[in-house]
Amino acid sequence: MLALTRAASAQVAPNTATTYLHPTDVQDARALWVNPAGLATMREASVYLDVTVGDPGAHGRLRQLTAGFDSRGFSFGYQRDVFDAGRRGHTYRFGIGGSSAGLAAGVATAMYRGDTKGTGIDFGVRDSLGPALTVGGVVANLGQPTVRGFPQRVTFIPAATLRPLGPDVALSVHARITTAEVVSYSFGLRWRLGGGGAGSGGPRVPVQLLARLDTDRALRRGAFAFGLSLGGADVVGTVLATPGDVSGVDALSLYGLSTRSMVTRR
To answer: What is the DSSP letter of 43?
Structure first.
């Protein structure tokens, strides 16, 4: 999320979902931006809306608006960015994914508009090595588009997610590597509570907590993201971003996500 705030002046902004999710731990419409292979992980349809405000408070300003959907592995998303000096950016993204025997693959194409014109392609894979471990990765920015004067380098993003206590607790890690160097590392924890109804010992409405730390290649803290969401099939959530020293709040994201199972009736 810190990268999103800094990008307001750099004229290139990552999607908010990439600042708090991991390539091996996302399987709804947001996977379009993080790892398109996640679009094929489950037979479901989902729609979502995300609004991100930079420097929330008296001087807060809308920085990014994202909307999208996925259905049976096909997805479309739109991202609108508000940069400094009044400039606007528009990204249109299309993706498709397929899976077989636990192995999923997907591809997404991004078209950049708004004082620029370029096209980039991401290719992603993920594989479930049993119920406790998922591995995968993404090759991003194939075609190396230039967006508002900034070349986007081909980036390799290897990732893994471990679920030591079952599906409700996930530990994730991924790295961002260009052809020149390791750029960063990211470490995350997701914990889901409740949803089992009366007598389950937890809240009746599912609650999900997440935390993510981004570091540079020397493992120096760069940014934190903290998230809270409520709901099961219909989710509302918020993500708070801070710098590595937690000295303030860089951005606040509010989102809604609705998911429905795509079960064919006979």
So the answer is: S
Rounded distance, CA 157 to CA 141, Å? 11
- Transcribe 160-209 into DSSP letters: EEE-BTBTTEEEEEEEEEESS-EEEEEEEEEEEE--S-TTSSS-SS-EEE
Q: Any residues with CB less than 8 A from the CB of 41 and at least 6 apart, and which? A: 27, 31, 97, 99, 104, 126
The segments of the chain whose pLDDT lies below 50 read: 1-2, 5-6, 8-9, 265-266
* 127 inside domain: yes
pLDDT in tens, 64-98: 999 999 998 999 999 999 988 778 999 999 999 99
CATH of the domain at 182: 2.40.160.40
Q: Which domain holds residue 174?
A: 2-261
pLDDT of residue 175: 98
Please count the structural domains in the chain.
1
DSSP state of 37: G
Residue-by-residue DSSP string for 229-247: EE-SSEEEEEEEEEETT--
User: How far apart are alpha carbons 31 and 222 in whole angstroms?
Assistant: 24
Question: Does some domain include residue 266?
Answer: no
Report which of 105, 133, 121, 136 is spatially closest to residue 41, judged by C-alpha positions.
105
User: What pTM did the predictor assign?
Assistant: 0.90
Residues near 264 by beta carbon (within 8 Å), at least 6 away in sequence: none
